[in-house]
C-alpha cells in the first residue's frame, strides 16, 4: 500500500508535470521502480508540497536549476511543460531562461531555449 | 563618458546588490575594468533591467542558478543579500535553495544554505 | 514525533557519518530544519538503508560522486571519514579517488586527495 | 612498436570494456590516434591495472563518476556494459546509479538509468 | 535601428562563425529575439571584438571552454567551424581539445573530438 | 628508476609550472605518490610535451579549461603562474579569462580573475 507521502506526491506530480511526469514514472517501473517512488515521494510529496513558495515560483527555480545544470534537456522538457501547466506564460519562461545567461553563459541558455521553442510550437501552434 | 546602458545598469546594480555588488565592481578596477563594465552594462543594464519578471522573481532564478552551478559561494553571498534587498523573506530564500535538492543534490544545497545562514545571522541578528 | 524513516535514517547516519554527519544536521536546525530532516529521512533512511550494495560499496560510490561533482570539499570531509567508519582502508579511498582521473581530470582528484590527506593525518597520526 | 603500458592497457580494455571500448579506440584512429593511445595506456594500462580495488569496485566508481559528470551518455553506455562484463549484476548497477541521487540529484540519475535500461534490454532480453 | 555594438558584433560573428552562427541567430527570432541580440552585441560586439588576443587564440579558448563545460555539442559544432574559419588547422583544434584531458578527463574530450571528426569529414572530405 | 616519460615530464613541469608545480608533486608524496607520477608522466611527459601547439597556446587552453571547470582555484593559481612563466603577459591572461564569460558566465570568470589579481600583485608588485 502506498504511503501518504506517495499519494500526496502523485497528486502534486499530476498537477505540475501532468502526462510528461507520468511517462517518466511509468518508464522506470521495469528498471528502477523505487527510483520512481523517490521522485513521487521525495521530489513531489515532500519538496513540491511545501509552503513558502507557490507553484509558479517553484517552476522558475526548477527551470533555472535545470538550465544551469546542463545536459538535462529531457527534464527541461517535462518542467517547461509543467511551468505552463501551473500558469506561467511563454514569455515568463523565456525570461527565466535568459536571466541565467550572466550566471551560466549562453550555451546552456541556448540549449534550454531550444527545448522551450519546441514545446511552445507543439502546445500553442506558435511561439509568441 | 559612460553609456546609457552603464548608467541604467549601475542604478539597477545598486538597487539590487547594494554595497556587495559595488565592492565587486570596485575590486575589478585595477585588474579587469572592462569586466566590471560588462557586469554593469550587460548583467544589470541589459538583463536585470528587462521586464517580464519582477526583481523578486529574478532573484529566485539567480539563487537557483548559483546554487546549482556550484563553487559560486562569493556570488551567492552577494545575491542572497540582493534577494533580501528586493524584498524576499529569509524563509523564501531558504525555500528556493531547498527546492534545488531534487535537481542538483544535497551538497550544493547545503553549501548555499550555509552562505545564507551566515548572511541572516549578520543582517538579522538571528536566523528565523 | 519522528517517523520510522527518520529513526532508521538517524541510526544509519550515525553508523556511517558519525559525529561529522551529526554536526551537519545540528548546524541546520536554526536555518533549515526540514532540510536536515530530508538528509536524515531521504539520504539515509531511504537510500543508504537499501540493500543491493553494502556500506563499503556505497562509500566508494559516494566518494566518486563527490569528487566528480566538484566544490564539495565539506561533504568529502564527512564522507571520507564515513568511508573509514564503515571499514574502508586509507589506500582504498585513495584508489577510488585516483580512479576518477580519467573521467574527471586531475584538478578535482587533487582537491579530493588533499581532503583525504588532512583527514588521514588527523585520524591516524600518519598518512600511509 | 607499442609499449608495455599499451599492451597491458589493451588487454585490460578488452577485458573490461570489450567491443564497446574497442569501437571507441577504432573510431579515433583517423582523427586523434594519440588520444586513443592515451585511453589505452593511461586509463587502462596505468589506472585500471592498479591493485587496491578489484574490477567490480572500479566499475562502481566509474559509473558514479560518469553519472555525476553529466553529458557522458556514450561513456556510460560503454561502462555499464563493462560493469556487466566484470560480473556486476543489473540490480547492483542500478543501485550504484540510484545511490548518486542525494549527491547529484534526480536528472543525472534518470539519464544514467535510461542508458542502463536500454543496455539491459539488449543484453538480457529483459530488464530485471 | 541597430546599435553600433550590434553592427560590429554581426560583422565579427559573420567573420568568425559564418553561416553556423547566422543560423543560431535566425532560429532565435521567433522565440527569444533579444537573446539573439545579446549574442551578437555582447558575445561578438563586446567580447570577440576586443584586442589583446587574436581570433585564433580566442577560438582556442572558446574550444577549451566548451569542451570542458560539457553538453555543448551544438555550440562546439559552430565554434570548431569557426576555428577553421579564422585559420586554425585541423590538427591544432584536435591538440586544443586533447590538451583538456588532464583538466576535465576523457569523456568530455571524446565528445568534443567526435564533433570535430564529423566537421572535418564534411569540410575536408577527409580528417587529417 | 624513473622512466623517460617521467624525466621528460618533470623537465617540462619545471619549465611550465616551476616551484608551484613542484610543490603539488611534493605534497602528494606521503598520500598518493603514484598520482604525483601520473601528473608528471601523463599530464607533462605526454600531453604538455606534444607538438602542434606552443606553450603559450597550451596555457591559454589550460586557463580556459580551469576557469570553466569551476572550483579549481588552487590549480588556477599554479597555471596562471605557469602562463607568466612561458611568456604570456598579464593582460593576455585576463583576456583569456574574460573571453570565457559568454560560455560559462560571470561567476567562474570572476573567481578566476581574483586568483589572477592576487598572483599579479605578488609577482609584479602591481596589477597592470
Provide structural commentary:
- Six copies of one chain form a homohexamer.
- The longest helix of chain A has 19 residues, at 106-124.
- With 128 residues, chain A is mostly helical.
- Helices cover 77% and strands 0% of the residues of chain A.
- Chain A has two domains: 1-50, no CATH class; 52-128, AhpD-like, CATH 1.20.1290.
- The relative contact order of chain A is 0.12.
- Chain A is built from eight helices and no strands.
- In chain A, helix 4 runs antiparallel to helix 5 (73-85) and helix 4 (55-69) packs across helix 8 (106-124).
- Chains in contact: A-B, A-C, A-D, A-E, A-F, B-C, B-D, B-E, B-F, C-D, C-E, C-F, D-E, D-F, E-F.
- The A-B interface holds A 39, 42-43, 47, 50, 52-53, 57-58, 60-69, 72, 75, 91-92, 94-96, 98-104 and B 39, 42-43, 47, 50, 52-53, 57-58, 60-69, 72, 75, 91-92, 94-96, 98-104.
Task: Provide a concise account of the structure shown.
The longest helix of chain A has 19 residues. The first copy, chain A, is mainly alpha-helical and 128 residues long. The first copy, chain A, folds into two domains: 50 residues, no CATH class; 77 residues, AhpD-like.
